[in-house]
Write a structure and sequence with these properties.
This protein is mainly beta. It has a domain of 84 residues: Nucleic acid-binding proteins (OB fold (Dihydrolipoamide Acetyltransferase, E2P)), CATH 2.40.50. 9% of the residues lie in helices and 27% in strands. The protein has 2 helices and 5 strands, in the order αβββββα. The chain has a 5-stranded mixed β-barrel.
């Protein structure tokens, strides 16, 4: 029989995040990349992202990030644009709130970008008011 070398299998190691506290270097966009904010989670590893160049794109979370980096609505992400499909992109990187604030301070993100808010509704305030006329009998 083989000798036991440790305590259990993969499930033992699952909860450990070894590099969670480390500060990483800030990554800026290059040619063919764009900053975006997640507007809607679509499932199946896809998100709807509002890019800061004005376009709304369907972005696919790459395999290295799936089930390791959790992306939520309102997060700032870096996406890679596709040459052959302008309305689709791939998620390369997710910025945490501190990194997103630094990008805004460097002038990479516009001043209108909401960093720490999940409400990314772009409509006007007047559309939210609803009035009912109820006639008494």
């Amino acid at each position: 029989m083989p000798k036991n070398k440790g305590k259990g299998g993969k499930n033992r190691r699952r909860g450990k995040n070894e590099n969670e506290g480390e500060k990483r270097e800030l990554v800026f966009k290059e040619d063919g990349q764009e900053y975006a904010q997640v507007t809607k989670m679509l499932g199946n590893g896809r998100v709807e992202a509002q890019c800061f160049d004005g376009e709304r794109r369907l972005a696919h979370i790459r395999g290295k990030m799936r089930k390791k980096v959790w992306i939520n609505q309102g997060d700032i992400i870096l996406i890679s644009l596709r040459d052959f499909q302008d309305d689709k992109a791939d998620v390369i990187l997710k910025y945490n709130t501190e990194e997103a604030r630094n990008l805004k301070a460097y002038g990479e993100l516009p001043e209108s970008a909401k960093i720490n808010e999940t409400d990314t509704f772009q409509g006007s305030e007047d559309e939210l008011d609803v009035e009912f006329d109820i006639d008494e009998i």
